[in-house]
Here is the input.
Amino acid sequence: MSTATIPRIFTRLAHHLLKPGPPYRCLSCSRLLAQQEQIPKQDTPNSTTHFGFETVPSSSKQSRVANVFTSVASSYDTMNDLMSVGTHRLWKDYFVRSINPGIRNSGEEKGQGQGQGQTILDIAGGTGDIAFRMLEHCTAINNDHTSKIIVSDINPDMLAEGKRRARAGGYEQSGRLSWMEANAEDLSEVENNSIDLYTVAFGIRNFTHKDIALREAFRVLKPGGVFACLEFSKVNNRLFEAVYKRWSFGAIPLIGQLVAGDRESYQYLVESIERFPRQEEWKGMIEEAGFLVPGGEEGKGWDNLMGGIACVHKGMKPLR
Amino acid sequence: MLVTRPLHVFLRHPANLRSSLVWQCIRDYHSYEHEAPFPFAPTEDAILSAALSHVPTHGFSINALTQGARDAGYLDISTNLFPTGAFSIVRYHLVSQRLALAKHASSLQPQVDITANIATLALHRLHANKPIIHRWQEALALLSTARHLATSIRELALLSDELLFLAGSTTVTSSWYTNRAALAAVYASAELFMTQDTSKGFVETEEFLTRRLEEGEKVRGGLDMFGKWVGMQAGGLVDGLRSKGIWV
Here is the structure.
């Protein structure tokens, strides 16, 4: 080793240890400046969250999600049918059937029944897909004509779409539906311990703070009340996953572009599905919020649909 | 091996819920010193035991489960805690009655006669079905559905194992398996017989059970003798061949 190299090594080492970060290069001044600008941005108290694969400030996620849903509200059904090849209807049917909302023969029996129906809160249910199904299930299966459903959505356009459908489908006359424009992370309009069933179908993925929304759900539910969530999840079969990924990243944005004329919104959709926590992790978050998760020996605590493309998670608020 | 949840899982839960998680640990060996934890969490236990008391009127149905939830102070919707619905009441009955056998077994005289002990225990277990016998066919129907068949067979195997263990059977040969299989078959048929039994105090079921167990003994004796005979003949054959100079 020549004597000249040793000091050079030391210089490099010192440079490495003392000044981490990109080396100063005259030609890349602007890049350096840009990086220096970015670093304090992350350190500010304004935390960031993900919007699809992008990282955005938490404060702006809500409005960006709102934009997505405003732009897809009108073509919502067509798009859902095309993207899921019609199976989203089956999933929603299954979801409602497995929950079995409504009190059997409510209003008829006096001694045994509690005399009144359930109060159901359907979060992110703007278009009423789940609400109408639950209403039908209550009436047709359980002969319950008293249970009430509050449909809540953060997006007025989606709510308007739901109201239009409620009128068209004849659900509005029942007087059992009510509409509420609210953020699921702040349900201050809803009292503590007042809800029997809290449902959220394909919505919780878009929430900025899922843990806060879960705690809010825990707050509004009566002891013994149930939190039920239908959401896209992770496919458990490798081969099927490859096909599914190809479909969701290749075909869905393309269908969005062709049918709804909006590629970005559907690009966001598939990216947000990818970012949603795995089944185990999501179950952990539900338990963390204080819910008792069903399952035990027979189940895992969730219910995979179509190999895990969608997944039903439930939790019950304990008495004490 | 004692399988409990890792510590961080406990700590993640609110303090008031942690105690209920301790119940969920699983132990896959038998300990004479420590009682095994009850396999149902306190909440499940409360709802299911209340539901079971409604079975004589409502049957093994989601109705009974709903009534049970109401009795335990929960809501109708709380039945979502049981994904298998009415079957969870059946399973609760099977598991709790199986575990209750251990208490009864302490009254037995040890090492008297294993067959007699088995008969006493099996009869005791059958009598536990008395209050719900008129609804038991519903349970059998649920138990035999494809979705629940694996659980049912497992539960029957566990019951058969429990009966033999409590009766004092200590075999470690291949008869460990045949004994359990035979007892499972006898018990299942006796249970089915009991649903049709109209005699007072289910004497006919008792007779049926005794007959089947006796038959089992006879078959086992016969098989033993046949096995011995085959062994003797084979030995004789080998000896004969060897005497003829064949290298066996």
